[in-house]
Write a structure and sequence with these properties.
mainly alpha, globular, about 70% helix
Amino acid sequence: MTSDPSPTDRPGDSRITDRIAIDRASALPRSDVAGLLVAGLLAAWLALSAARSNGSALGPLVILGGSVAAFGIGRAAGVRWDVRPAAVVVIIAAALTLWSWEDVVHRSPLGRPFGYANATGALFVQAVVAASLLGVRARSLVAKATAAFVAAVFVALAVAVGSTASAVLASAVLIVGLLAGPSTRRTVLMCLGVAAMAFLLVTLLLASRSPSAGEGEDLRGLAQAALSERRIELWSDALQIIVDRPLFGVGAGRFDEESTVARSDPDARHAHHEYLQLAAETGVVGGLLLVGIFTWGLMRLGVSRWDRGGASVVGAGVAALAMHACVDYVLHFPLLPITAAFLLGIAVGCELRDAPVDAAHEWLVSPDEAEVHA
């Protein structure tokens, strides 16, 4: 199925492409302002909690700032060039795969490019998002088929690298990309949000079960079969730290100093649960703000008014990263959240690009532009 050309693609509309596209990229809808507000609050809280708890928030702040910048760049690129900038993600993922080919195919747990196979798998998930996004918005059947093939290759790579979570999430993203369309966008995004929240709650429930008291042995046994006993012990440690230091935490970057399990195992520096670790290091507010950022991402895609396809698959990528963060420390690898933010920005930019030329909504069109098209 081919898509109708967006306003900035129509022949003879160079004035729209060059001038109005810039105006739309610089416009700030209320929904985007809300995202900046959540990111700003998290940045402020990271700095405050670090100051109060003798932590170092530099690393998290750099990753957060990089993600915000990537969203802005992706948003502007999406307005100007539609989904074509998503090809950058595919190219980078392919280049890193070729560079670390032996480690990928031999399932080296500490192999290149990140020194951690699960992080490599998470990159492949985002590459599936990028390829699927290119396919959803493609006009020719050949382009759609090529994009689907590339996405399937990255799913196979996610399986090959040996990351179970990445393989499952990459497959789910591919299915969403193949089946979901603009008419089902809100339903798909709602289901993704519910699934991500349910998964988070299940992991928190597992963390709260005390093995010494014999609570929830059956549930823990199933989880340990799918995950690992040490990972759940790290979660429990993080939760106990949150109970002991709920306001400002123990300080950013200090989880490995405070966790009993982490201190006893040099390979367990992280909690393998981004929300629990952030809450343990910066307080409950920090963890809730991180949840808020992912929630905003899905909601921002849900309020798109002129989506021609792409919001669902990008939402699947956001939800995939959110769920992966429940069982691993994927957000500690800057390229992963930055890539997800870049793709989210592209999807938002495409929405602004697809808006009718004569749309006079105050959040989209500047007064000068509205006067031009009056």
